[in-house]
Amino acid sequence: MKSEAKYLGGHADLNFRDVFDKYIVEHQEYNLDDSITIDEETKITLNDLIGQLWKCTDITSRDICQKLGLGTYAKYSQVVRKLKSNLLSKE
């Protein structure tokens, strides 16, 4: 089940992690309402993607962490919570 990470913690679906990484690398500005393509049939908002990674314990790459100002390494859960907090504080 793809939403398992949202509720149970642990590992999020690899596809969600890859899509998140690609989104961060390809964009300079982020918006919770941005539409993101998951696969040929599925589009979700950045906010929904963050929800899928909310309790993910996998480690993000150093490049993603540094781009978002989070040091060297962090869990996806830490990265998405910080990103969402930053985006909400801008509103």
Strand order of the largest sheet: 1-2
What best-fitting shape do the alpha-carbon axes yield? globular
Helical content band: 40-55%
Distance between the termini: 33 Å
By DSSP (H or I, 4+ residues per run), the number of helices equals 5
SSE class: mainly alpha
Average predicted confidence as pLDDT: 88
* Radius of gyration based on Cα positions: 12 Å
Number of strands: 2
Q: List low-confidence stretches.
A: 1-7
Strand content: 5-15%
Main pleated-sheet profile: 2 strands, antiparallel
Helix and strand sequence: HHEEHHH
What tags apply to this protein structure?
mainly alpha, 5 helices
Account of the protein in words:
The chain has 91 residues and is mainly α. Helices cover 52% and strands 10% of the residues. It is built from 5 helices and 2 strands, in the order ααββααα. A two-stranded antiparallel ribbon has the order 1-2. α3 packs antiparallel against α5. The radius of gyration is 12 Å and the shape is globular. The N and C termini lie far apart (33 Å).
Q: What is shown here, in short?
A:
The protein is built from 5 helices and 2 strands. The chain is mainly alpha-helical and 91 residues long.
